[in-house]
């Protein structure tokens, strides 16, 4: 019975967290989710699919792909490309400079090889030179707005390493906030629960054994009402003298304590 009452008091105390602690835990959880999402979008998925990342520098693909957009372009079979696809291709085969434009039509050279005609969404005319198979670097997989600014700041050589460090830092920060918030909340909630349980156990002990009431009060840090000494029960018995009847209205009593 004592343990049940203590557990009930502890549960009443721990089931209700303060609004501040709940808000902090919620924000930490949101930060962790965002960090994991950013790491997945910018690092994990591109690495798993063999994709390459590129940053949009010009206005040729506005409004869908404005400057500062980070493009994730994954390899695609040349024969699977069709009109409407957005591709990233080299200006010249084997060169580092690339362009990301949309396929607007196809043609063929004198040898019958397929050529791709591309054009920027914000351009009024198609690109001057058709695109050959050896120039294609990949097909647009997805794009992340504004992430290209960070990639440009890191530079091409440091982009991968910088993105990995940033993602790991975000995940670590979010995880630290979540774990720290949970531990802080548990510490705060366990103290009132322990105090409540100790008080109820002490009260029960005092009811069962009055001799420990004062000691329990001191251990809990507050005064305990003084226990009254149980009254002594007395009885009255009339003793008559052997000398004979006593005068009416007068008697002698002897009080005897049990």
Automatic annotation (TrEMBL):
The chain crosses the membrane at residues 22-45, 161-183. Residues 31-109 form the Peptidase S26 domain. GO terms for biological process: signal peptide processing. It holds the Pfam family Peptidase_S26. CDD domains: S26_SPase_I. Residues 247-258 have a biased composition (Basic residues). GO terms for molecular function: serine-type endopeptidase activity; signal peptidase activity. Keywords: Hydrolase, Membrane, Transmembrane, Transmembrane helix. One of its GO terms (cellular component) is membrane. InterPro entries: Peptidase_S26 (IPR019533), Peptidase_S26B (IPR001733). Residues 225-258 are annotated as: Disordered. PANTHER family: SIGNAL PEPTIDASE COMPLEX CATALYTIC SUBUNIT SEC11 (PTHR10806:SF6). This is Signal peptidase I.
